[in-house]
Amino acid sequence: MRVLGIDPGIASTGWGIIDHAHGRLHPVSYGTVTTNTDQNTEARILLITQALKGIIDQYQPKSVSIEDIFFLRNVSSAIPVAKVIGSVLYLTSLQQISFSCYTPLQIKLALTGMGKAQKHQVARMTAMILGLKSGEISDHVSDALAAAVCHIHTVQGTRGMTK
C-alpha cells in the first residue's frame, strides 16, 4: 500500500509518500509546497492543489492521509487551513483515492502511544520508524509522514511496523 501523508498549511504544506509492504514502512519521497505571502488565498490554494496533483500523478498513492485542523485560540488562522483540506478532499475525490483525516491526538497516539506527546517526540518517532536521521526533515514533512504512518497503523490495526 502506498500512502500520501499531508500536513496542510496555507504558507507551507508538508507531504510525504510511504510504502507499506510485508509489515515494513519505506519512505519514498517527501517535501514541502511553499506559497508566497504576496499572493491571495485563492492563488495559494490553487498552487498547493496543483502541486499535490502532480505528486499524486507521479507517485500514484492508494490513500491520502491528512492531519486535521487543531486550534484553540486563533480561529482565523484555521480557516485557510480548512480551505486547503477542502481542496485536498476535492482533489482526492476527483482522482478516486481514499481520503482519511486524523486529529493530532490520533496521530500522537498512533506513533508514540501517548496522546499528550510533544511535537519533538512525534518527530523523533517518525524518523525512527522510517529510518531517517533525526532532524533530517522539516516539521511540516515530519507531520505529513506521521499522518501517513498513522493511517497505515490504523488500517493495519498494529503499531509494530518498522522500516
Layout of SSEs?
Blueprint lengths: L1 E6 L4 E10 L2 E11 L6 H19 L3 E5 L7 H20 L3 E5 L1 H9 L6 H12 L8 H18 L7
Parallel strand pairs: 1-4, 4-5
Antiparallel strand pairs: 1-2, 2-3
Low-confidence stretches: 159-163
- The CATH topology is Nucleotidyltransferase, domain 5
- Radius of gyration, CA atoms, in whole angstroms: 15 Å
Provide the CATH architecture.
2-Layer Sandwich
What does this structure look like?
The chain is α/β, with parallel strands linked by helices and 163 residues long. It has one domain (2-156): Nucleotidyltransferase, domain 5. It is built from five helices and five strands; from the N terminus they run E-E-E-H-E-H-E-H-H-H. The chain has helices spanning 41-59, 75-94, 104-112, 119-130, 139-156, and strands at residues 2-7, 12-21, 24-34, 63-67, 98-102. Strands 3-2-1-4-5 form a five-stranded mixed β-sheet. Strand 1 (2-7) and strand 2 form a beta hairpin. Helix 1 (41-59) runs parallel beside helix 2 (75-94). Mean pLDDT is 90; it is low at 159-163.
Question: Main attributes?
Answer:
alpha/beta; Nucleotidyltransferase, domain 5; 5 helices; disordered C terminus; 163 residues
